[in-house]
Amino acid sequence: MDPTAPSGLRYDFIWDLCEENGNLYVNERLDREEMCGESATCSVSFEALVHNPLNIFEVEVSIEDVNDNSPTFRKTSLGLEIGEWTLPGARFPLEMARDADVGNNALLTYQLSSNPSFSLSLKENPGGKKHPELVLEGALDREKQSSFEMVLMAVDGGEPARSGTVQILINVTDLNDNPPKFSKSIYEARVAENLPVGSVVLRVWATDADAGSNGRVSYSFGNVPDDVLLLFTVDRDSGEVRTASTLDFEEKSKYIFGLEARDGGGLTGHCEVQIYITDENDNVPEITILSLTNPVPEDAPTGTVMALLKVRDRDSGENGQVSCELSGEAPLSIVASSGGSYKRFSVAGAAFPADFCEGTLPYSYNLCVAAPARAVPEAAWPPPPPPVPVLSAEELLGGDSCEKPSLNSTAVTGEPPADLDAAQAAWGQLRYSVPEEMPKGSFVGDVIKDLGLQLPELRDRDIHIIDRGRTQYFALHGKTGHLVVAERIDREQLCRLMDKCVLRCELIVEGKMEIYEIEVEITDINDNSPRFKDIELEEKISEMTAPGSRFPLAEAHDHDSGRNSLQSYELSGDEHFSLAVQAGPGGDQRPELVLAKALDREEAAFHELLLRAMDGGDPARTGTARIRVTVLDVNDNAPVFSQAEYTVRVPEDVLVGSVLLTVTASDADEGSNGHVKYSLKKQTDVALGIFDLNSESGEIILMRSLDFEQEDAYELEIQSRDGGSLFDTAKVVITVTDVNDNAPALTVTSQLRGISEDSPPGTLVALLHVEDRDSGANGAVRCLLDKDVPFRMQSLKGSYYSVVTARELDREQVSEYNVTVRAADGGSPALQSSAVLALRVLDVNDNAPVFAEERYSARLAENNAAGALVLRAETGALYALRSFDYEQLRELQLWQYFTVSEENGNLYVNERLDREEMCGESATCSVSFEVLVNNPLNIFHVEVAIEDVNDNSPSFSKAALDLEISEWTLPGARFPLEMARDADVGSNSLLTYQLTGIPLFSLFMQDKPGGSKQPELVLERGLDREKQSSFELVLTAVDGGDPARSGTVQVRINVTDANDNPPVFSKRLYEARVAENLPVETVVLRVRATDADAGSNGRVSYTFGSIPDAVRALFAIDSDSGKIRTAGPLDFEEKNKYIFSVEARDGGGLTDHCEVQIDITDENDNAPEITILSLSSPVPEDAPVGTVVALLKVRDRDSGENGQVSCELSGEAPLSIVASSGGSYKVVTAGALDREQASEHRDRIGLSLKISVTSRAIPGEKGRVSGYGWQVGCDLDGSINE
């Protein structure tokens, strides 16, 4: 039979041989897959026995395959999760189908149902099998389509073909690729001043098309002034903008600020909020006496100015319009002046009373200010005032004070009383006995009868039990005179640890004044079970402890007494232990655990026992305790590496600190004995200092950068040692693969510094040399020049290039060239280097001079210094020879910011003017005031415009801006950055932004509705977190002043991980060779896959792929470590090779596959089998020499040397044994037979197994078969006929 077919099956009954024609027929249905499994060929071999003459022929029948099995998948559907950030071209391995057929009938190809976003690719494994991979053809957008359904069909090559299908369900996971978007770019609101704090002003609203946290929007202020933060708040969840303090129209009537909406992934959107404050009539007009003439001459002419008043109302519009009137009988009138002033209380006539005294005015006057009725209803203004006092002019500048009442409080206290009593006890003369736990009312004794009293005396003489203030366990029944139980009696509670339990009480007969003492003995009942203090006991015993050793156990306790107390112990649960009970000094029983059989921690680390304690009650009560025996380890096992040799291939640009490989050694011991530490035992000179072996984890870590160009392979010898100094060694081979890590080296060997503009084309300008240390395509270099330059490259011999002029030069158009020469290699991505050739074009006199402008103009500020620069042109400069003065002013007296010289009337700045402090963000800034002039008395309105100077630099609210950008973000994505603030206005305000850093990012400025510029960071190229996980840029805000001012902020970008790296096995094919009959859970090999991603995306778990159930029954894989262990017995004779696939899956659902090939080696575990096929008995004594007497079949199911057998014949009979084909033997006559000399011969045939000389070999075994009177060794019983 074919060695790959299961040899445990018998095939002799399958065939039928026709005796008439000798044709061989099939006796029953043949199933090739059942007979030979996955073997490529299938044949059945057997022997045919032929009589007359007796002979054996070997027959082999080949079983051809028919297409009777369809391809099948292990699951009905496959679920995949793919991020919408995944780039087109990404591949996702799918489950392979299984087809039990072979050859052309086996699985041939796969087909995928049509879908424009996905296609199917077939990857051929080392064993020739095709592995289906799903390929992403176009970018995904979860917001457009969040899931896909497709059908994968596996088709075999039979005729007709068979197929099997599986449904593929793809869920598109969300990428934060949509920033929040406000419903408006500008939100406007108009609210009245003096709103209550907490009032809603408006609500902004932003939406985000992403899902989950990526679509959850929170709101906050942008870079806004502090006064806005004091006046307004924004709810981070609802977007409601509320007042945080009182709004005052008179302080500011309009607020403009920015709001930011940020999603859970850090993307932002911005809007502008404009809040207009409307005026309320909340300010009373203010009157200020600017000047007062007192006394007034009685001959003062009509129109004489007596006083100047300033009237001001801080409200605006109609609320701020005031009228001024004069009441009283004085001959005065009031006249309005400019700027809210009133001048001249004019004398209307000279009619003064007769009691007028010189120097006084006998009249008082009131100034009354009222607002028009259209601003505030008449009912509300003016409010009902107290009577207006009559004041003198001086008193108008004064004021009154007021007091506020104080508050009082009281307190109440109290005292609590307390009191206690005590009681006493007595003994008695009557004695009774009663069991514990009797119900209330149970009979104890007939007290009346026992005392010789009659029942009538019970009532007449007031007989009762004396109450001493303690618990009364007994009572006297009022009708019968019986002593009964009054309370529950628990003997163990009342008389714990006492052999005899007696309760006492006193009975008094009031009529006789006699006291009787009563004693009641409480007898025990079996109401308590034996109990252990701890129901879980733990013992720790070393596995080296000798049998017979004893270990005391905790005793049980039983509160009952006598026979009801603890009587015996029993132990159950394990053959390794027995129980012994020792008697203590007080007669108590003390249990001991006895070790009956030697322990082996590796066989059983724990033993669970049950200790039972029993009392003598009827029925008996028991208590139990579980005993957990922990077997302490001794160091009787050495560590064993999972592989004798580890190999790994790593690229030369792997990061320092990366884990290249993890070696594992297992030790069956525990604790320090099983704690394995790893060390480098031996390494080549070139490997010194490059690798480090973590003594705890077994991780081989890169300590210095690798360079393929210096060394492409390293060998290490590692050692694992346990805490008891036992060890094992293994070999590690690290192969370095080349990556494109060397940019081409571009050297300018020679060049011209200057070249005449009339040089002809082809003039040699520079000579260059290029070299790249990488190999293959990574080292192939090509050179290029910038476009639109009058030069070209020419390749010379070897690695040299020349730069020559391509056309004529013109110095007047371009006077010098910085020509960039770029050298790029053939790697992916390509690396390049460059060199700049600075070439100056030498002039030839071929142009006449020309002015740049026909007319020049300039502006000069007044009060300039002599010699100040007025204008600079290409040919010279214009300077002022003296100072210039624009105007002259008379003497003035001003307040706060300005002062006037009394000598020349010039206006001067009184203190430093800060336009930003005075006018904030207003585009224009001016100060208006009135000037009071005496002699003659008058008022003039003055307005001074404050011009802006560039004294403020743009500033950011933070020193650094932190952004998180996923590595899956597509190029072109924009990320709004914080806007800077510049307190200056006009040309001095913020003008533009600049970005410095790396070419991966650029800057775009979005024009806002108000004319400001919003900086946005633009991703120019795809990110790869595994190559670079963070970036630092500098954003500079520059204003338009001269000289310009700037402010900077650091932009820190953290690249978050995307699951863009599938797990990668260190090998495509893992091979192991193990002996049959290994113990279950023996480690066969370990697969290892690495994933460059981080977190859960980089966490790899291992499972079997689509494999037969027979393989699952024999092998198991640890999902975390990748260790493959035996799950059932391996039998070389049933199958000597297993090939199956293993899948590695990361936390994001990406997978990789490898193939595992396990070869089973043969052990000598089968004894030879002897079958007597034919026996001729009796044998004629005249049978010629060579006559066949018997045919034997000898078979050993082992292979190789273990299956080679020899057959020998012992005894004195003239017979010999001759080997035939196919393991058959003939017993033939070796000489003449003589019946008279020996009528019967008994020869014994023994078989010995030919054994190769190895330590694993076992002695040859003898086969034994019964039948036909032979024993095999077998006895051949035969007789000889005459």
From TrEMBL:
One of the record's GO cellular component terms: plasma membrane
InterPro entries: Cadherin-like_dom, Cadherin-like_sf, Cadherin_CS, Cadherin_N, Protocadherin/Cadherin-CA
Cell cycle as UniProt keyword: no
Membrane topology type: Single-pass type I membrane protein
SUPFAM superfamilies: Cadherin-like
Any one GO BP annotation for this protein: homophilic cell adhesion via plasma membrane adhesion molecules
Keyword Repeat: yes
Main subcellular location of this protein, as a coarse class: membrane
Keyword entries, A-Z: Calcium, Cell adhesion, Cell membrane, Glycoprotein, Membrane, Repeat, Signal, Transmembrane, Transmembrane helix
Alphabetized GO MF terms: calcium ion binding
Domain Cadherin: 15-73, 74-182, 183-287, 419-532, 533-641, 642-746, 755-851, 852-956, 957-1065, 1066-1170
Location in or out of the cell: Cell membrane
Region described as Disordered: spans on this chain: 546-565
Function of the protein: Potential calcium-dependent cell-adhesion protein. May be involved in the establishment and maintenance of specific neuronal connections in the brain.
Protein name: Protocadherin gamma-A2
Organism: Lonchura striata
